[in-house]
Hints:
The complex is a heterodimer of chains A (about 200) and B (about 350).
Chain A: H1 2-26, E1 39-46, H2 48-57, E2 59-64, E3 68-72, E4 76-86, E5 96-99, E6 102-107, E7 113-122, E8 127-132, E9 139-153, E10 156-166, H3 168-178, E11 188-197
Antiparallel strand pairs in A: 1-4, 1-11, 2-6, 3-4, 4-5, 5-7, 6-7, 7-8, 8-9, 9-10, 10-11
Chain B: H1 2-21, E1 39-43, H2 48-64, E2 73-75, E3 83-84, E4 93-94, H3 99-107, E5 118-121, E6 133-148, E7 157-158, H4 160-167, E8 191-194, H5 200-209, E9 219-220, E10 237-242, H6 243-250, E11 264-266, E12 268-269, E13 291-299, H7 300-303, H8 308-317, H9 322-326, H10 328-333, E14 345-346
Parallel strand pairs in B: 1-2, 1-5, 7-12, 8-9, 8-10
Antiparallel strand pairs in B: 3-4, 5-13, 6-10, 6-11, 6-13, 6-14
Amino acid sequence: MSRTSVRLAATAATAVLAVTGLSGAAAADTTPAPATAASGSVVVHESTAFIQQTAAAGVVVVPLPSGQPGYDSATGFSATFPATGGDANLQAYYDKIDLGGGLLFVNLLTGRTAIFKQLAFQADTWKLTGVPLGATAPVNLLSPAGDNQIGRTGTTQTLEASDLKVDAEGAQYVDGKLNTTFFQGGQSIGSLSISFTPAG
Amino acid sequence: MRKTAAKLLTAAALATSLVSVASGTAMADPSVVPATQDIVGVGSDTTQTVLNQFSTDYNAYLTGLGDTTSPRLYSFDATGSATITAKAGTTAFARPNGSGAGITALNQTSPSVLPIDFARSSRAPQTGDLTTDIFVGFAKDAVTWSAKSTGSNAPANLTTADLKNIYNGTYTTWNQITDIAGYTGPNVTIKPYLPQASSGTRSFFLKAIGVTTLGANVVTGPEENEGTDVALNDANVIFPYSVGHYVGQVYGGHSSGTDAAGVLSLRSINGVAPLTASNTINPTFANPTYGRTLYNVVRNAEWTATTTKGIALRNIFGTSGWICTNGAADIASYGFLTIGGCGSTTHI
């Protein structure tokens, strides 16, 4: 177990460094900054059932900086990703929300990983996507399901989804990278909360 | 147990497949008087035909499953007889024409609550709507302007500023349009038309072009999304038009009687064509300015209830309901775009 922990720590550290390095490259973008930057966040709430299932399968899912893990006794575990850009109009199902941070999936039994950067919520396809490390095309990871309520107060848009399901494309990709058969398209992992104010 | 579930799923998939392939012809109005428990809607002209198809296919789907007890789905057109009897044993009332009229009918409490369960709406929630009304999205459309296919004095393209100036009365003749490359309009009066006042297409179009006060020369009247009104057969007419409804009429084979494009064809805005080369809605055109979500509006108290009606509403319109899981072919056939967030709700 301790060897696994060491391996996990080393793998995660490598992943974090890799993503941080990419973030540094992105910071070199010379696009003029808007008067007010995009703000808000996408919060993935993980259900207790999903946490138990991942633990039993030897899989952990970790948000990478600037994503933040969280725990609340009422809502359980969560991962929060800050909105960094995009021009999504949720009511119009248009454009996307760019998110900071990344997602790390680890197979504790083998140390194999899957890492996603350039996370985004695509308002047109209604999916949370991520670009695998070393790739350029996004992969569909999660899809809001259940009761989806879109709100707007001033320029701030919100989405509350009572269910959040694994997308078949993401399941296939992550299982392939981890060499597991744990993830399934349609698998429920919890719920989703979005609050987003576009740059102004 | 797993085998049973798998068998059930296979049977359901097969039934769905058969319904998709062998769907019946959509009816203009229900061919039967709906029963008390059925889910009945009124309102938007733009979405009436696709809702009629949903009704035909959803009811066939239930029948195909051997379900004879669940509420059926019915939808009354925006135009037709002056009055409709929405459900058995109820009093006839004036047929609501348009999104606004449908929503008003849904919320009527005096002199009596009307026997309807949803309103078709081609506009989003707006100031004045009730917070207790829930708009459930199911597809995307866009709105552009149209003119006579042949012999029109209108250019192929107008800017948003041109449209604003035409509909607020600043531009009254074609030669006042000077920002369209290669176009020199004649010194002839423009005839800007709008659909009737309760039309969701009308309110959406005016909001998109930024007009709050109409020019004195703007004519209100023709039924929306129909180019068959004789008044529109004029070289100087322009008229807003649902891009999706047009695609359904012209390329989906869903014209019927006056519900047809007639003499009109769609024109571009800001140099962006409303249609792709394969005659579908151009996603670039369907941006938040000229693109719009299509909704069915329900009462929140019923939408969230665990009653037969609440369950039926969610089974039809919800994220896991029939329209969102089986309606894509109908949506495409009637010219609209599917949306990833089908079944999502919003309100004012």
